[in-house]
Amino acid sequence: MDKRNGIKNLLTVALLAGTCLLFFWAENNLDNFQLRILNLAAIFAILGLSMNLVIGFTGMFSLGHSGFMCVGAYTAAILTMSPASKELIYYMEPIIPILAHIQWPIFPAILMAGLVAAVFGLLVGFPALRLRDDYLAIATLGFAEIIRIVVTNTISITNGSLGLKDIPSINSIWVYWGSAIITIIILKRIINSSWGYAFMAIRDNEIAAEAMGISIFKHKLLSFTIGAFFAGVAGALMGFIITSIDPTMFRFLFTFQILLIVVLGGMGSLTGTVISAIVITIMMEVLRFVEEPIDLFGILSIPGLPGMRMVIFSIGLLMVILFYRQGLMGTREFNWDWVLSRLGRGKSKERGDSI
Amino acid sequence: MSMDSFLQNIANSITLGSLYALIAIGYTMVYGIIRLINFAHADLLMVAAYVAFYGIFIFALPWWVAFAIAIALTTLLGMSIEKLAYRPLRNAPRISVLISAIGVSFLLENIGIVVLGARPKPFPRPEALVWNIQAGNISFLSLTIIIPIVTVILLLAVTYMVKKTKIGIAMRAVSRDFETSSLMAVDVNKVVGTTFAVGSALAAVGGLLWSLQYPQVDPLMGVFPGLKCFIAAVMGGIGSIPGAMLGGFLLGTIEVMLVGFMPDLSGYRDAFAFVILILILLFRPGGILGENVVEKV
Question: How much of chain A is helix, strand and coil, in % rounded to 5?
């Protein structure tokens, strides 16, 4: 048994090292555009993972993700923008003095973005998590919309509907995928802890879980707050990659895209979420051609069709939910036992672990 | 606020409230029977408005023909959505059906953007329906009177159907218990289909009246009215038709009056409905007229 665990640890280290090499290669060999898509995939992976924790693992159908992203993105942007550009951008109403002169390095700012989003998660979750299923969905959707509207109207903090520009730009793959990998590790540890088991017990049967002595509300709030934290982190990263944000970015559409990733990957599988985040992000760019005018040999030309990508994604979502509800991975995870047994070295009695 | 503008606000809130009420009835009927927030309901408003728009502008139909076709097509669409996207998931977890509903809603909106273009278009106002009425110092559109009348007539018709007709009794039975009613020889699929048909027809009428009142159509026009009408339905007590009516009128009045009395807060107008929703869900989850159902093991 020890030997096997040793092998698994070794494999994990090897995988991490391999991934690092891959990033190193990517940073040096991919062009800016490809790198940007890869980084975007990391952000969507974080978003998908955090939403999956809430929807897939704890069974709370929350649609408020874009709101927490919004909070995170604004926090990080305000903390990292230079005082000079703040003075320039806030021309409708000057920024409140406390925020005007601070400029933090990016990592504390990302962490702070997560923490502020988590505080919002706590505040929203406290009333909202008394609700269930579709009521919870509509209430969290409502909170996200309230957050967006408040952001639009508190001009002296957020610059209102004009949004923020000149957010420091970061291109390094290490920042984005580094954050994604840290997210994966933290969430994996949470899910395999007593918290995680409590979350899944709540998902599978709330009443039974309560009867077993699990504090339902505490664990729901915990899961929701952790989800909000990572949504905030992803929001911060989104600001750094796009370098400008405004409240209309964080509409329900965003939540829909994340939901698509979670459903496609499998509600309740971290591995599935990461895979589908990468696939969907790449698809979003690849499918861009369907929205552009197509010219067939100069004879036939089809005008550009904006919105076509979302038609394809909506049909995709419907197909998955109607015909293949468990998604790519169901509730399974990538794990070494499975890989080893596939390679013929695994002990058959341990195969049960892989489910 | 002067007396005149107060009266003007009253007129506005009656119109808006009636529109909310009309659309909320569709939500409440569907929710009452299959416990689903039919996100696609909002987009049916848009479909009806566009069918009428093209009927009048492209095919040069008289407005009443175009309106009738719009209602018929929207009803068919509503029934097809139920059949294709919700019926296969009837025994699935509720989250799956909800995701399916969100998927259908996004599909309709984006097909709208692809086929119709994202730019708003002006909706025609037939002279037979819309004219100005001058009473003292306030002037208002004939719609201020027409919309509440249509709403009340349809409300009465739907109430009659649910309370007195055979299909209405079947609807109430199915909303209580799917299995038992199917044992009592109620054709559940037919009943659910009819509910969707009625709900969609009401959405179509709501969409047409909405576009007459705010004469502009775009593929996303249904989203906000849709959300607010759902909120109205929850306020009144979801599943209850008089509740939807009450919720619609209350929400319309509160919104108009809030902006009328406190113009500083008008930026928060859309947030306000959600604040009401959350307060209602927390303190009286059954709504004003609804019964509080305690979930049993």
Answer: 75, 0, 25
